[in-house]
């Protein structure tokens, strides 16, 4: 069995290249399902490593295989995502985004670089494990329907059939050097809500002549808040929030209609469906009472993410062995969502967090912000730990 120190030395040896990969991807971000150059770059790195792959899955996705001894014994999947966000980067680093308005603000550049670093390590130790490692580079994590669901539909979990999967995600609020795990329910499902209320527009000074959709929308929002208070006291963790309301009126102009956009998140599929019906009922009743029309669309998004108890506990113990108990934390449940959840509904998975923050260096910005960045030494831990967890799971 390979020792942890051997993996750490290999991660150190490949660190310069892993860093180069991360910076290249960070400088050249591409939006969801348009990661053409990113995919080509990753393919070139795999070519250089001599790792066979198939590209063009969901257009820009890549699947690569590293076969050990007895390759049919077990297949473990490692996954990274490729897409960036429509954010203008405000950092002043040498590797700042070259694409105006597009930025790797969620760490997908880190995920891809870490996976390629892990691939370089694991490729060195092919004689030390039994089974096959399937490397997944997935497009479109940031937008519905999520690249994971589309790759599953294209058969990414078959040929060879995947038995379990591991993935990591940057965690800027956790100091570099640390990682976090949680067994069982971890992240929420997510649905998008689009609502248009149509009343009757008119001159603001003549209330008898109009039916103000803004007031009707406000009534709906307040009634929804009563039913979904977002106070953390619900038996089932639930969030209903609206982040956009648009009326396109003026100080003295009442618009004909108003549109709202929001999100619904929870951790129970039965309640998820029931809640959708409650939302529809409240919207329709208030609109009808106010002699207005309501057009409600609830777009079903990602399911909840559940970490397999056995696999996650095993990975946590392996991480303690690799990093020390003081550097492995227990994570709380969170209401954010991830399309890796689609994989968690199909097979045992472990989705863990990689500490990337450094308060002393001022690296504290959260994901999805224009100043997000990482302490790049996290790449060494990310690649090394992914390789170590894989070897522990497939050890001879």
Please give a structural write-up.
The protein has 396 residues and is α/β, with parallel strands linked by helices. The chain folds into 2 domains: 4-187 and 303-393, 3-Layer(aba) Sandwich (Aminopeptidase), CATH 3.40.630; 191-300, Alpha-Beta Plaits (2-Layer Sandwich), CATH 3.30.70.360. 34% of the residues lie in helices and 25% in strands. It is built from 9 helices and 16 strands. The strands form 4 sheets. It has an 8-stranded mixed β-sheet, with helices on both faces. α5 packs antiparallel against α6 (269-289). It starts with a helix and ends with a helix. The mean pLDDT is 97.
What are its keywords?
396 residues, alpha/beta, Aminopeptidase, Alpha-Beta Plaits, 2 domains, eight-stranded mixed beta sheet, 34% helix
Largest sheet: 8 strands, mixed
Approximately how much beta-strand content do the residues carry?
A: 25-35%
Tally of DSSP helical segments: 9
Strand order of the largest sheet: 1-2-4-3-5-16-6-15
Integer tally of domains: 2
**Rg measurement, Å:** 24 Å
Number of strands: 16
CATH secondary-structure class of the largest domain: Alpha Beta
Unreliable spans are none
> What are the secondary-structure elements, in order, as H or E?
HHEEEHEHEEEEEHEEEHEEHEHEH
| CATH topology (fold) name of the largest domain | Aminopeptidase
Give the mean pLDDT: 97
User: How far apart lie the N and C ends?
Assistant: 7 Å
Which range best describes the helical content: under 10%, 10-25%, 25-40%, 40-55%, 55-70% or over 70%? Answer: 25-40%
CATH superfamily of the largest domain: Zn peptidases
Shape: elongated
Class based on secondary structure composition and strand pairing: alpha/beta
Which CATH architecture of the largest domain is right?
Answer: 3-Layer(aba) Sandwich
